[in-house]
């Protein structure tokens, strides 16, 4: 049968590819972003309780009310504003579903969506499936700063949405308040909406504070803001995310959500609701927690030939291997899996037109022992590489 793929050029995501390769080669996986240490045992106990108490049937389509109330309280603590749990908050299957729903809700045939490369790989396929087209603006290493004049020039009458991811995966840069003001000025008087992927909202380093669109009076009126308990509670496998948006946008998002995932795994929602109620401060130490891990890895790698690029946020760390090899990042990452037994994430798959660069992304959401072992492997590989040169 002749079959035309809707996404002929899309393969398997680099995260899955690298995790599979790590398993096949017996390599330590510091590529795909997920913790390798246990969740809070009190959260695990809350899940067992939720199942035992009978939370085993469909949760409400929009999310368990108890959880949405806790999310609202948490947002108030973080961003000083009350969002209506009933009309402005929707629980989704991870951040990924929220991104997809928001894109399907607002992007139509021929619409343009501005995204910033290196862009998280879920954005473009969702835009294309909605019939839209991405305008990809590259952020240049090593600072990966936004250029709002360039954004202004990239807009057209077809521009419908801008996707801003901050803290940004995989570049580890963050948008500042000035960035949000500049963005607001760029889209003022234009019918452009914003999709703010803020799943790393609690992981900013060196005293930085997260500039959320929800705390920005002008931007929040036209934003879908996406968050993730996978990141905040170290439980990526639970697949619980949520989207915060004004009532009008939430209504449209839910039209997609109800026919996409319909409703999200019930006991996880009740467990998180109960956990947040009992431990409302559980997430407040995340920046310090991950900064210590970043510093541990960076201190072990500095001078090895894997040069750390300063990271402002996310639970990733970029390293530049340019002193060790001129291989492409895909080839070099593959060599690291085979020869150093370390799986990483190359950066070029996140660009439409990758600039010349020799960067790899490492995940620091790992036990200290894993980070030390990974650094040892990388340093040993680098030393061998230098000897053979
Ligand atoms: N968010 C994870 C990362 O950046 C990947 C999740 C996935 O594999 N889709 O590594």
Write the layout of secondary structure elements.
Layout: H1 14-25, E1 28-29, H2 41-52, H3 65-79, E2 89-93, H4 94-106, E3 112-117, H5 123-129, E4 133-138, H6 148-154, E5 159-165, H7 177-187, E6 193-197, H8 217-220, E7 223-228, H9 229-232, E8 240-244, H10 247-260, H11 266-278, H12 286-301, E9 307-308, E10 316-320, H13 329-340, E11 342-343, E12 345-346, E13 359-363, H14 368-387
Bound molecules: glutamine.
At a glance:
This protein is α/β, with parallel strands linked by helices and 389 residues long. It contains 14 helices and 13 strands.
Model description:
The protein is 41% helix and 15% strand. The protein has helices spanning 14-25, 41-52, 65-79, 94-106, 123-129, 148-154, 177-187, 217-220, 229-232, 247-260, 266-278, 286-301, 329-340, 368-387; strands at 28-29, 89-93, 112-117, 133-138, 159-165, 193-197, 223-228, 240-244, 307-308, 316-320, 342-343, 345-346, 359-363. The strands form three sheets. The protein has a seven-stranded mixed sheet, sandwiched between helices. The protein has a four-stranded antiparallel sheet with strand order 9-10-13-12. Helix 7 (177-187) links the parallel strand 5 and strand 6 (193-197). It binds glutamine. Residues 13, 15-16, 32-33, 169 line the site of glutamine. The site of glutamine has 6 residues, from helix 1.
